[in-house]
Amino acid sequence: MTTPPLVLVPQYFGSTVFDRRTSRYVPFDHQTTAALLATLTTPIPEVIQAAAPGEQEALSSFFNVFYDRGYFTFDLFFDGTALHLTPPENHLTGPLATHLEVVAACNLTCTHCFAGELPRREAPLTLNELDTLFSTLAQMGAFRLGLTGGEPLLRKDLFDILDLATSHGLHPCLTTNGLLLTPEIAKKLGERPLVWLNVSLDGATPSTSDAVRGEGTFNQVLDKLAMLREHARFTLAFTVMRHNAHEAKQFAELCAEVGAQTAVFRPLYPVGTAEQSRHLWPTLADYESALDAIWSLGQTSDGRPIVPRAIDPFTPKSRNETRANVTSNWGCGAANTVCSISVGGDVNPCSFLGPTFVAGNVRRESFKEIWHRGETFRALRNLPGDSSTFNGGCRARSLVMSGDVNAPDPWLTADAAPRRHPLTVLRAERRLP
Predict the structure, then answer these.
(1) Closest by alpha carbon to 107, among 30, 177, 3?
(2) What whole-number distance in Å separates Cα of residue 19 and Cα of residue 16?
(3) How, if at all, do strands 97-101 and 338-341 pair?
(4) Which of 365, 389, 377 is nearest to 327 (CA)?
């Protein structure tokens, strides 16, 4: 039996709908959620006919827009299922993305790694423990799962973990440095429905990338990519640092040359081993100059199209005010839309906040309980947000650069542009043509 492509997850503001075809969430308010729920059992024309006369035109426009987006079957029912759960009053039912560390060891010693000093002696979660965790995530509507390390390919049962995750309906992503890839591993990765297969490469030239990843690694990774593209789709992930920001455009062109589907540009966070490498920390100007260099890319020098770019909106300039927000506070993603789980089961609001923010361990209590009631989760969600406290950006940057997780993000203090309360954007989402 084919799995329906959509899952409606109840939320305090209405719902989010997870689209298995794109691995993305779309938020809806209470009124539009009610309309979607009605079409689980009643076709669209009958739902419109049952609405009040003054609402029928708007409802018809709403259904037309989302019919075009593939939300409904040919016989005009919602093309999915709905989870039956009661959402909490002020935060999401579950994270939109969970980052799971599957191994606390690596074959490299990069000077900018957020994971810190490796290896760590920590008994990893077993497959049985992961089975319980994955089941809980699925029940909470938390379908996106990022598998990280260390180097995940060091874990011998990695493919069992991937298969276990997908058996629960989760959509796993995998990030690797690529050096342990073999044709057999590449083939196995290509056979699995990964959302992303990220390969890290931090420069467009050997000297720039090798400066943080180790001598000779740049050319070794390129050799691996030539083999990988024969078996699997992959993304190249570029960490923007002070010494490599000027190579962003060249890196995007390199992505096209080596066959990457997407290029992802993220700023370096001053955490882990990078906390001791201040010379690598980019400024806001460094990061925005890197993004500016690739906004207008269209073709390579020989006329071939540049691969699509996935540029994470980590700066005020690159945020789009029409992009929906689903939190009721001024927080970052930590505890609001994302969280992390260590190889041994420690749950943290964010991979970058460090062990003092661990809220619990899934070996001792359920992930659901930690997400809803963990002390550090509740503390980060409860911050009111004003000009004197954290009101957007990155809490880890605030913690390291300002000494307080609740201090304003230093990157945002330089940006005087006014910011709306997050939920005003969500309410605007209903204004459909």
Answers:
(1) 177
(2) 10
(3) parallel
(4) 377
